[in-house]
From TrEMBL:
The keyword Metal-binding does not apply. Pfam families: PPR (PF01535), PPR_1 (PF12854), PPR_2 (PF13041). It comes from Amborella trichopoda. One of its GO terms (molecular function) is mRNA binding. PPR repeats lie at residues 245-279, 386-420, 421-455, 526-560, 599-633, 668-702, 805-839, 843-877. Keywords: Repeat. This is Pentacotripeptide-repeat region of PRORP domain-containing protein. NCBIfam families: PPR. InterPro entries: Mito_RNA-Proc/Resp (IPR051240), PPR_rpt (IPR002885), TPR-like_helical_dom_sf (IPR011990). The lineage of its organism: Eukaryota, Viridiplantae, Streptophyta, Embryophyta, Tracheophyta.
Length: 897
């Protein structure tokens, strides 16, 4: 692709091969995944940024910012420079007039017009125009009036222009230039061609006429205002008077294009070219522009070929316009092909805007190498970057994974005169967030807010998400406040995440008030957001708001979970608002009168929550209300009532309720499971055993949980003979023993020999002992000594005998430590770290057991080492372990003293 550049006379020897992406080890288009940009591994950020910064500063060094773009194309003489220097001071009083008079400049029409073209500020220009008109030996011409009217038009000061023209109409002008010509020119430029026509009509009635310049200004004003009928009449008048010239043809061409008479415009243009008439680049450019707007690129290509073959006019503007439209329509490949076409060498000199448009189009396609090549070419051709180029370059560095260079250029923006665009701000913030540099991204946002920049939806979401993940709620709050100030409503997804984050940070009130703050009281909240709000208010003992949210949650189509009902009702009960619970139930039921199944579910949730809160009387009231409302309690309702009695340790009531249920309903496994587990957890093991026997006599098989609770309670009470019977019965049911039951039995086998002795006394058949759970455990762990001997193949032994988890390892570790076998415990810990499979890695309890065991044998140095390891993994020892460690450490210090 560089051969075309060479033919254009570029000095490519200065270009550093290979391209930047190979030099920087980039792999476009997505090198952003590595933090802080691996793209910069082979290049110094400061050097790259400094190189581009020098390029950006070249324009400011060569052309001061006070001068306009015309400075680049007009060669100023000494007098014009001196006048511009006086006017650049910005003073519009008598001092400016005195300073201008002191210059002793000989005014000419050319001098005045050039000064007016070079000035950006309107008021000094008007002052100069007024002063010049009163100088001896000079009178304004139509060109001067046209220049000042054009300036007022560009500045959109139509009121000033019309007031001035009205003054001209009411009184004779102080200027000698003809009054009517001035008015016609002024109103035509001001966008009031109908008034200009009226004045023209009065002139003709008085026998006066316009000159060629004024006719063309009037004709252009009519075309600009789409007055095409009147334009035809004035065009004929111009032709009749012999005023028709190249400017008239240009205006006629513009008229045809505005009327979408493109075929006529092309035919006229080609006719003028073939007949040798006045044809200029402007006529070709406006025709190409109109054809491109209609996407008639084939006709554009044919037209450009004919003009190129003629070689009569410059075609740079037309080529630039063509390329710009190709990019804007998404045909970036065609635009790049045209840009590099060798046939265009000598006819086409790219504009700065053409480069910028191409770079912007390539940015959309992530074609980063080509962008860099264009930037290199711009520098080699001596094309100075403007603000648009700077913005495109910053976007390029962000996309190329070189955000450090982009931020360096951004930080020096004031020195370079760089004003970041909307796209540049978005690119910077997005790139910084992807590199997890959230503080810098927020700083860029704050800078932009001062210049009325505010991110779009996508960038807003990226920044809000980054702030949410970093947990910086204060900055997230500032972002939301800035959005509210600008009437920008964040999406529901952002709002609910912000609310959840506020709730988890203990700022639940702010989260609750956010919808009202955003003026979105009907904001649809997610189910999880309601959970966060309700849990947050319950933690603050604000049950009234929590209950209101629970009701609102159901009204919005979300189903509260059982745990959520428990939290809210427990909070109300702790606050002593029992009646409010019943009122809440009433409101829930009233909204679901047509659905008995939903009502049943609501009552069951309230009964369960009341029992969980230790309020069996409240649960009973809910139960009675359910019956009053004509609903029939199901088995689940009765089980929940039974739970409520058991949790509040009302054992007699629970047993009576159980008997009543067994009389009313057919005894079921569910009922027995509930009562047996409840009695075990209430430490009523004998009652639980009696009901277990009753269930087995009825032919019912209790659940695994029942057996686990029975085994646990019996082991704790050291009733090992009964443990063996229960385990044996469980195995006879044909079910697999759970890891939990294995761990309980293993713990007590290692604790003492009593369970093993009871197992031996039970007279178990030797041929079947190896297949029973106790037989496998006793065979693996007959005593602590045998455990030590098998530590190296412990994992294999465990897997062969039982299904182990981390609790199993912790049980063995604790037993070793209690027996004083700390060395063996450390060996087992090392085995867990080295060979531990998923789910068996050391957890906080593992570390605590080892630290506690080391402290008990006085090995404080080793205990300190393991404690430091705990802290590194964010694990913390239990209070008992810390107290023991501190006691031993203090005692050791006293001994040393």
């Amino acid at each position: 692709m560089f051969s075309a550049y060479t033919r254009r006379g570029l000095l490519l020897k200065t270009r550093t091969p290979p391209s930047i992406f190979r030099a920087l080890s980039l792999s476009p288009p997505s090198p952003l995944r590595s933090p802080h940009g691996q793209a910069l591994s082979l290049v110094n950020v400061k050097d790259v940024a400094s190189s581009f910064k020098d390029w950006f500063l070249e324009r400011r060094r060569r052309y001061p910012p006070s001068l306009t773009h015309e400075t680049l194309t007009l060669t100023l003489n000494h007098d014009v420079q001196r006048i511009c220097e006086v006017l650049s001071r910005g003073d519009c009083g008598s001092e400016t007039e005195a300073a201008l008079s002191d210059l002793h400049v000989r005014l000419t029409d050319e001098c005045v017009v050039r000064v007016l073209k070079l000035q950006k500020d309107v008021l000094p220009s008007l002052k100069f125009f007024d002063w010049a008109g009163r100088q001896a030996g000079y009178r304004h011409t139509g060109a001067a009036f046209h220049a000042i009217f054009k300036m007022l038009s560009r500045a959109k000061l139509m009121t000033v222009m019309l007031d001035w023209l009205e003054t001209f109409t009411k009184q004779r002008s102080v200027y000698t230039f003809r009054l009517h010509d001035t008015l016609v020119i002024g109103y035509a430029v001001a966008g009031k061609p109908e008034i200009a026509l009226q004045i023209f009509g009065k002139m003709r009635f008085q026998g006066l006429d316009l000159d060629g310049f004024a006719y063309n200004v009037l004709l252009n004003g009519l075309v600009e205002d789409n007055c095409f009928d009147a334009e035809d009449i004035i065009a004929k008048q111009i032709e009749m008077r012999g005023f028709r010239n190249g400017i008239t043809f240009c205006i006629s061409m513009k008229s045809l294009c505005k009327q979408n008479r493109l075929d006529e415009a092309m035919n006229l243009l080609l006719e003028l070219l073939r007949n040798g008439n006045d044809v200029n680049e402007y006529m070709l450019t406006i025709t190409v522009d109109a054809l491109c707007r209609q996407r008639r690129f084939v006709e554009v290509e044919g037209l450009m070929e004919e003009f190129r073959d003629s070689g009569k006019i410059s075609m740079s503007n037309a080529y630039n316009t063509w390329i710009t439209h190709l990019v804007e329509t998404g045909s970036i490949d065609s635009a790049m092909e045209l840009f590099h076409d060798e046939k265009n060498v000598g006819f086409f000199s790219p504009w700065l805007r053409c480069y910028t448009v191409l770079i912007t189009g390539l940015l959309r396609k992530d074609r980063l190498e080509e962008i860099y090549d264009l930037l290199v070419e711009m520098r080699l051709r001596g094309i100075f970057a403007d603000r648009n180029t700077m913005n495109a370059t910053v976007c390029f560095f962000c996309k190329a994974g070189m955000v450090d260079v982009a931020i360096e250029l951004y930080n020096d923006r004031l020195e370079m005169g760089f004003c970041p665009s909307y796209l540049a701000y978005n690119s910077l913030i997005n790139a910084l967030c992807r590199d997890w540099r959230v503080d810098e991204a927020f700083r860029v946002l704050e800078d932009g807010l001062q210049g009325n920049y505010f991110p779009g939806k996508k960038t807003f979401f990226i920044l809000a998400d980054a702030l949410y993940r970093s947990g910086d709620l204060d900055k997230m709050g500032k972002l939301v406040d800035a959005a509210i100030e600008r009437n920008f409503l964040p999406s529901n997804a952002i709002c609910v995440r912000y609310i959840s984050a506020l709730c988890k940070a203990g700022r639940v009130d702010e989260g609750y008030l956010l919808p009202a703050k955003l003026n979105k009281p009907d904001m649809f909240l997610r189910r999880s957001t309601y959970f966060d709000l309700i849990y947050g208010f319950c933690e603050k003992k604000r049950g009234d708001i929590a209950s209101r949210l629970l009701l609102e949650m159901r009204e919005n189509g979300h189903s509260p979970s059982r745990s959520l009902y428990r939290v809210v009702i427990s909070c109300l009960c702790d606050m002593g608002h029992i009646e409010q619970v019943l009122n809440l139930l009433e409101m829930h039921v009233n909204g679901n009168l047509s659905d008995s199944e939903v009502e049943n579910e609501i009552y069951n949730h309230f009964i369960d929550a009341a029992g969980h809160a230790g309020q069996p009387e409240l649960a009973r009231k809910v139960f009675e209300k359910m019956v009053e409302d004509g609903l029939r309690p199901n088995i689940h309702t009765n089980i929940l009532m039974l739970h409520s009695y058991l949790k509040s340790k009302r054992i007699v009531t629970a047993l009576n309720s159980f008997r009543e249920l067994c009389e009313c309903l057919e005894p079921s496994t569910k009922l027995y499971n509930v009562i047996i587990v409840g009695l075990c957890r209430a430490d009523k093991t004998e009652l639980a055993l009696a009901l277990w026997r009753d269930a087995r006599e009825r032919g019912l098989i209790p659940s695994l949980t029942c057996y686990e609770e029975l085994v646990h309670m019996l082991c704790c009470s050291e009733n090992y003979e009964m443990v063996i019977k229960v385990v044996k019965d469980f195995e006879e049911t044909g079910r697999h023993v759970s890891i939990y039951m294995y761990n309980i039995l293993l713990c007590h086998i290692l604790k003492s020999q009593e369970l093993i002795k009871a197992w031996l006394r039970s007279g178990v058949d030797g041929s079947q002992s190896g297949n029973s759970v106790l037989g496998r455990l006793v065979g693996a762990f007959p005593n602590i000594q045998s455990l030590e001997d098998h530590l190296q193949n412990f994992e294999e032994l465990i897997e062969r005998r039982i299904h182990a988890n981390i609790v199993t390892y912790n049980v063995v570790l604790r037993s070793l430590c209690k027996a004083g076998r700390v060395e063996a415990a450390c060996t087992l810990f090392s085995i867990m770290c080295r060979n531990g499979k998923k789910g068996c890695e050391p957890n906080p309890w593992t570390y605590d057991i080892v630290v506690h065991g080391l402290c008990k044998v006085g090995r404080l140095r080793d205990a300190k080492f393991f404690m430091e390891k705990m802290f590194e993994m964010n694990f913390y020892p239990t209070k008992g372990t810390i107290d023991l460690y501190r006691f031993l450490a203090t005692r050791g210090q006293r001994v040393q003293q």
